[in-house]
What does this fold into?
Amino acid sequence: MFIPFYVPSKEHLRIIIVGGGYSGLAALATLREHNSDAEIVLIDPRADHLKITQLHESFRRPWTDVHLPFRNLEHRFGIRHIQANIQLDEGLLKQSNADRVLVADNQLLDFDYLLIATGAAFRKLEKGERTLDLDDFIAEPGPDLLDRHFQSGGGDGNYLTVVGGGATGIQFLFEIAHFVRERRIPCRLRLTDVEDAPLTQFNAKLGRYTEARLDDLGIEFMPGHFFRNQTADRVVLERRETGEPVELPSSLSLLFVGKSPLSRQETNWFGQVVAEGTTLDRVFAAGDCSRYRVPGSNSFSAQTAIRKGKLAARNILRHSGRIKLLEPYVHQDIGYVVSLGPADAVGWVASQRNVVGGSPAAAVKGIVEAQYDLLLAGIDTYLL
Ligand SMILES: Cc1cc2nc3c(=O)[nH]c(=O)nc-3n(C[C@H](O)[C@H](O)[C@H](O)COP(=O)(O)OP(=O)(O)OC[C@H]3O[C@@H](n4cnc5c(N)ncnc54)[C@H](O)[C@@H]3O)c2cc1C
It folds into this structure.
């Protein structure tokens, strides 16, 4: 596929991508497809790209299925990975745009274009000995974490409490339900959320379907409660309406309380960073860490992250070319499917009103994940 209005100049491009998640890698694949000799450096503190949309599946799939070592991508896309954590505030971004130099791992890197794609931070609650959050599931396979807990005496006749009925909490909860049933672990499950239903960010029908499935599996649902803390054998909640504390049996709480909407980098319609009121022509941002000017979607979703990454890459190439006519961001998500265990899912396709559930929804989710895997293999099947 060719890029309209991209007429390459003779310049040998040097591009730095900070953040090797969904948007960073979508940008990388697009850049490489259209410019085979650009020098691309990818900076990420991790050793592996994490397929976080599939992380809950690590309860039934090998850990290696959700981790792709950056050294494989170095080879596949002809890039260099530097394992480093880059912190850039607006002042430093302006300075980098002027100097076109970035320091990473004590190396001075010259660049023509810089793409910031560092994702969004998770909301954190205070953790104790008997709480786990997403960072734990990123660091270690879920089965190992739970096995350790059950072997240490937690589980027998006990409850495990999942805090947060958003997409992440729901996906983990249903995988755990499948996991404990398969292994015949005598452990009951509970979901609690401050809202009145699960998946409240979507059409209410998604929540209703999910509640019915919770019921079918015998999972207790406690809506309208804040999480306060988890002791050795109790979870302490607080009723949203009255502030009254509620203590319930629980040996472990899993905290999935969503992403922080704070500190997103503003950009213009083309993905160029706007810092302290100035548009930086050589610095772009994409993915969850960015807020593009509307009308395009700024949702915290892999689809949006991929589309922003691809658009930023096309605009970097156009800006480096002879015409410099950039493309505005207009992408809208065309669906979102939440997995409810290995064979079930619920979501919407085409319009928020068009709800899908059951095995057809699980198939849609599988297709979306397969399309991303193709992109990582260097085969771009996204239309835009
Ligand atoms: C558990 C979970 C399940 C999800 N499931 C779905 C789903 O089913 N469908 C969907 O559409 N969306 C889903 N999402 C949302 C989706 O994963 C995100 O919207 C998407 O990953 C955002 O892509 P990104 O590139 O902006 O950030 P990320 O994919 O988070 O990548 C950010 C990268 O930047 C790196 N980084 C961070 N800080 C720095 C730094 N200072 N310097 C250098 N590198 C840095 C990180 O190591 C990481 O590799 C899910 C999210 C979670 C947490």
Notes: Residues 18-24, 43-46, 52-53, 55, 85-87, 117-119, 134, 167-168, 287-289, 300-303, 305, 336 surround flavin-adenine dinucleotide (CB under 6 Å).
